[in-house]
Design goal:
It is globular and about 70 Å long. The protein has an 8-stranded parallel beta barrel, surrounded by 8 helices. A two-stranded antiparallel ribbon has the order 7-8. The chain has 2 domains: 291 residues, Aldolase class I (TIM Barrel); 121 residues, putative tagatose 6-phosphate kinase domain like (GI Alpha 1, domain 2-like, Orthogonal Bundle), CATH 1.10.400.20. Helices cover 47% and strands 11% of the residues.
Length: 427
């Protein structure tokens, strides 16, 4: 099992890691599957969905766990990528979606979700029961409560495993409660607190005890990682860089444990930052918004070039169509983007949080996207225009590394982000 090999390599002192692709966007997933061919490597892909994205009620993608597996299989087949080289993970699996309900109701739904994820073939399972539920007492949640709930869900996962599964296909668990805000912070931050060693030690100990009380000793042997806060974060217009000096104690502590760290919100870190994270035992690097952000960058650049080549009435007007759709349906951005109407308009397009990613599946947006690609396929982009708007892709075209098509240009731009992660995980 590839995840096990990563852990073993880390414990031998090797700076090995794996990128976790946290996106359901078809262009992102296709780009990730292309990396083995583009970079001439044998690739194992880790693709994850969250409890909000995918659950028994469909989540915001409209997909159940089984649907998501079929969706990924379809993209893999289209791109001649071996599905057996894909590890599927479930992120933040727990009662987060139902946290306003009673603990009994929320946990019952969480159990069904965990069961469905495991039965569908998800192997990497992040047990996240850190949130307070509707009838929990006021004040800070005692650490034993989320640990007990995590063990409760692990028990359901173990009961849902196909009896004929080989050991390599049995669930691998991630534990931990100190998770950065999914998708980035809402306000500008100068720093975030790095998890202290005592809290990590307590998390591991209390969760182990909860597993053992449920007779889950075998499952505990497959707990491979713990989530902590290494001091990285991003928001609308800022990125907090990884500073190794602040995590020295964390790094030393985990060297004597059987697990590694999982790094959340690693989006937009520099290449050096990512490499340092892997070196310091953050062996699973999760990335999502940075990938859809790079897709958006490429598409916007193509739309701007389209404006230079076509009359207004024949253009896709994609950027305006997107904003109109976002204004008509503000559900996915309004609570996240503060400020004046002008500031919100800027964030809708250019925020690192990339809330625009929720709007690409909209039929009107898809229609405009199709028109953009059709226009630029019929009238190839002049090299001088590419040099102006996408100089990196211009160079790659000149060197014969990619073709002069809009699709190839988009994928190449996403590949640049993936290549940074690949380099960090194999340094």
């Amino acid at each position: 099992m590839y995840l096990d090999e990563i852990i073993k390599a880390q414990k031998r002192g090797e700076a090995k890691g794996i990128t976790s692709i946290c996106s359901a966007h078809p262009w992102v997933l296709k780009a990730a599957m292309q990396t083995s061919e583009v970079f001439k490597t044998s690739e194992v892909l880790l693709i994850e969905s969250t409890c909000n994205q995918v659950n028994q009620f469909g989540g915001y993608t409209g997909m159940t766990p089984a649907d998501f597996v079929g969706y990924v299989q379809g993209i893999a087949k289209e791109n001649n990528f071996p599905f057996e080289n894909i590890i599927l993970g479930g992120d933040h699996l727990g009662p987060n979606v139902w946290q306003n309900e009673s603990a009994e109701s929320a946990m019952q739904k969480s159990e069904i979700m965990i069961r469905d994820y495991v039965k569908a073939g998800f192997v990497k399972i992040h047990l996240d029961c850190s949130m307070k539920l509707g009838d929990d007492s006021k004040g800070v949640l005692d650490m034993e409560i989320p640990a007990k709930r995590a063990a409760q869900l692990a028990k359901i996962a173990e009961m849902s495993v196909d009896a004929e599964l080989v050991p390599a296909k049995l669930p691998r668990y991630i534990i931990g409660t100190e998770v950065p805000i999914p998708g980035g912070a809402h306000e500008h931050e100068e720093a975030v607190s790095v998890t202290n060693v005592h809290d990590v030690e307590q998390t591991i100990q209390v969760t182990r005890e909860a597993f053992y009380r449920e007779k889950l000793q075998s499952a505990w042997e497959r707990v491979i990682g713990v989530v902590v806060q290494p001091g990285v974060e991003f928001g609308d217009d800022f990125v907090l860089e990884y500073q190794p000096v602040k995590t020295k104690n964390l790094s030393r502590f985990i060297e004597n444990q059987a697990v590694i760290y999982e790094g959340h919100s690693t989006d937009y870190q520099t290449g050096d930052g990512l490499s340092n994270l892997v070196r310091d035992h953050f062996a699973i690097l999760k990335v999502g918004p940075a990938l859809t952000f790079s897709f958006r960058e490429a598409v916007f650049a193509l739309a701007m070039m389209e404006d230079e080549l076509f009359s207004k009435d024949t253009c896709s007007n994609l950027i305006q169509v997107l904003d109109d759709v976002m204004l008509r349906n503000p559900e996915y951005w309004q609570k996240h983007y503060q400020g004046t109407s002008a500031e919100q308009a800027f964030k809708r397009k250019y925020s690192f949080s990339d809330r625009i990613r929720y709007y690409w599946p909209d039929p009107q947006v898809q229609s405009a996207m199709g028109k953009l690609l059709k226009n630029l396929d019929e009238k190839p982009l002049p090299l001088s225009l590419l040099s102006q708007f996408m100089p990196n892709q211009y160079e790659h075209i000149r060197r014969g590394e990619i073709t002069q098509t809009p699709e190839a240009i988009i994928f190449d731009h996403i590949h640049a982000v993936l290549l940074g992660y690949k380099a960090a995980c194999n340094s």
